[in-house]
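Appendix B. Raw example, untouched.
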Amino acid sequence: MIVQAQVNGSGPFNFLLDTGTTRTVIDPELARQLDAPVVGEVSLTGALRRRQDKLVQLASVELDGASVSNFAAVVDRLTRQKILAPGIRGVIGEDFLSNFDFLVDYKRHWLSFGDPVPAGERCRFQRIGEYHGEPTTNRLLLPVEVIGVSRETFQLQLDSGAKVPELFPAGSEGTSTLPSGGTMATSSGANGTKIQSNVTLKVGGTQVRGMDLVQSRRTLAFDSAGLLPTSIFRRIYISHSGGFVILNPSE
């Protein structure tokens, strides 16, 4: 999901909108262009590795009228993200998005902030997870059932940057091994990922049928059992103020 954002009054610049990323990121060239002052460092856990990145101070970030001032962003080259989305200058993460309620309409390619709450079932999400005994923030963790494949309920991260539903390996937070239906590669790397085809995912009263479910072989543990892409729903309303999502709300 590519959006245009103003940073420090300049732009617009193309950003990837990613509810699965806890911190907003800009590339080094944009940081230099904005002459953004360095204010510290942050340790980040990614799909394949942990790394240490610089933090810079931004005067403002604005997206479709939604604006946050005095905002710290991570500086990273975004090598993998730019392969998937050429031309982006950064990633809008949950540290920005958590200040707002918004609707994503995939059919109309529409992102809207501040609309009235639509009709539909309200599914509560967790804002805080846990990684190596420490709390993680800016999260959207939802309980998800995989009907006909497992009797477990998995706590998945609602992720607008994910392509397919994905479970992390057994031994990560709350996962287990699923029956294998084949192999495929994900955007995080050609890692011999197992896949289960034609499964049904259930979140609250909403069911999404005919999905491919990936079980990756990532080497890192996470605070969730896997990823739930927002794009498998026609429309999705995320209320950070209320702590709930509405999946496929009425128009």
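End of appendix B.
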